[in-house]
Amino acid sequence: MKIISVVVPVYNEEDNIEHFYQSIVDVFDKLDYEFELDFVDDGSKDRSREILRELEKKDSRVQSIFLAKNSGHQLALTCGLDHADGDAVIMMDGDMQHPPELIPTLLAKWEEGYEVVQTIRKTTEGVSALKKLTSAYYYKLLNMVSSVHIQEGGSDFRLMDQVVVKAFRRYREHARFIRGMIGSMGFKQTQIEFVAPKRFAGVSKFSPKKMLHLAIDGVMAFSTLPLRIGLYIGVGCGLLSILLILHVIVSKFVFDDAVAGWATITASILFFGGVQLTVLGIMGEYISRIYEEVKNRPLYLIGRGKPKDEK
Ligand code: UDP
Ligand code: MG
Question: Using a 6 Å cutoff on CB, does residue 158 contact ligand 1?
Fold first, then answer.
C-alpha cells in the first residue's frame, strides 16, 4: 500500500492538535492508503509538545520533530519536508483551515499523474476586509515584479510527489517563499480551489511582522526589479537635473535673471538625498540577504522536545 506523509507545522496549537489528528485518522480510514503524520513543533510554548508526545505514544503513525526555537512557518515546513519519506507528501496547517476532507481530491489528482497538486484559497471565512485587500494587491505586485508566476490565493496546502520533495530538498536558501519556489520548479502541476474555514481554535500565529517579512521575502526572492527601480529613478533624476541646469543657464545668460534660488537647491538636495537613500536601502535589503546566505547557517535546529517537567 502507498504511504502518504502528512507534514504539519504547529506553533502553540494545543487546542487544535487532537482534533486535527482525529480528522486525519477519519479521512484515511475511508481511503486505501497508509499515512504517517509528521508534526513539526515550531518551538511551541504552550502544551503542544506534551500533546504531541501523548499522540506518538498512542499511535505509532504519528511522529513529531521539535525545533529548538520558533523558526517560522516556512522553515518548519522545510524541516518537515526534509524528513517526510512517503510516496507522496501533503503539507497543511494544523488549525483546520486546510480542510482534511480535501485530501481524497488531492490524492485523486496525484493518481491521475500530477506531481504537484496545489490548492488555491478562494476565500477565507471570517477574514478581515483589510487582509483580503492587502493579500490581493500583494499578489498583483508580486506577479508584476516576479520572474515566475505566483498564483493569487496560493496556499501552503499541497500534495507533492516524493520526486518533487527530493528535488525541493536541494534548495537551501534561508529567505524562502515556498509557494514561489515550488511553482518555479516545473514538474506536472495542477490546482484545485477551496474555501478556507475559520480556525478551529486559537488565534492566527502569523503576527503582522511575520506577514510583512514573508511578503518582502516573496518579492526579494523572485525579483531583482527593486534594484532596477533604483536605477530607473536615478536615470530619471539625472535627466531632470540636466533640464534644471539648462534652465539655470538660460535664465542667467539669456534673460540675465539669476534668482537667488536657494529653494530650488534645497529642494533638489532633499530630492536627490531621498533617492540615494531609497536606492541604498534597496541594496541593503539584498546585501543583508546575501549575508544571510553566505553565513550558510543551518535552516533550523532540532531539539529534544522534552516537556518542561521532564528530567
Ligand atoms: N506556524 C508555525 N510557526 C509560526 C507560525 C505559524 O509553525 O511561526 C504554524 C501554525 O501553527 C499553523 C500554520 O503554521 O499550523 C499556519 O499558521 P496560522 O494558522 O497562524 O496562519 P494563518 O492561517 O492565520 O495565515
Ligand atoms: Mg490558519
Answer: no
